[in-house]
Amino acid sequence: MTPRTADHQDLKTDLNRLIAFLSASDRVVCLTGAGCSLASGIPTYRRENGDWQGRNPITHQDFLDTFETRQRYWARSFMGWPLMSTARPNPAHRALKELVALGKIETLITQNVDSLHEQAGLTAVEHLHGDLREVTCLVCGASEPRTQLQVRLAKLNTHLDLDGEIQPDGDAEIPLEVIQQFKIAHCLLCGGTLKPNVVFFGGKVDPTLVQSIYHAIEQADALWVIGSSLKLFSGYRFCRHAVAFGKPIALLNPGWTRADPIADLKIIQPAEIILPKLLSRLTNSAQ
Questions:
Q1: Model confidence over 52-76: pLDDT tens digits?
Q2: How far apart are CA 217 and CA 201, in angstroms?
Q3: Is 60 known to be catalytic?
Q4: Which of 93, 127, 129, 241 is catalytic?
Q5: The pLDDT of residue 9 is above 70
Q6: Which uninterrupted H or E stretch holds 166?
Q7: DSSP type of residue 163
Q8: Beta-carbon neighbour count of residue 177 at 10 Å?
Q9: For domain 52-86+131-198, which CATH number applies: 3.40.1440, 3.30.1600, 3.90.25, 1.10.10?
Q10: CATH 3.40.50.1220 is right for the domain spanning 10-42+89-129+204-287
């Protein structure tokens, strides 16, 4: 993957603008998206103009309704999981951890399912779309670590030569004829259907969590969105909520976002480049 580069001519100006925004806000709610994990080797769903790249994702209802959809998901997930399980935090994750420690960010919410914020050392992360590290039985509710399930899937599919192009969130592009031969695992306790502990497209985000985030925004001074196009309403709704309560919005994203027209500040820089520099500036100014 080709590393992203910053526009060095504008980087100093962007840093000053971002510092001014944060300096005016004592309580900041931060929402991170796929762009935050791109430098860790995990592909994003969308191009910089907001257009979808790759094939259509699995939907929640299709996963529930058809065996073929579940077979497709687990075959592709089996191929993609090694990348997700070995991905490590990049400078953006590490800088965000320190910004939380400094009190610059009060609440951190992520649309990502990769757990890289936790690996960077954060202990309080709100997962809007769940976490791939765990699978849940749809019948009895039992949970199983994804790492354990990977071992079980490997034993069931020693007959297959699996290979393919890695896609976002642990997905992979593999031939249909291979998918049709893939054997899926079931719940160890009741034999029921297993689902990753994530919100598929068309699925419902926990309403209690949504209300909690709304409340955090109402109590905050500002909303800061990092690495998300906000194309989906799932994340965009929080920008609308911030506007409704008169809270300023800062966007940090190299490309288009749905909230561009309503944001107070837009920084077009890669998170892994500007956030460590921001941290350095803030740390030095506090000394």
A1: 445 567 899 999 999 999 999 999 8
A2: 24
A3: no
A4: 129
A5: no
A6: strand 165-167
A7: -
A8: 7
A9: 3.30.1600
A10: yes
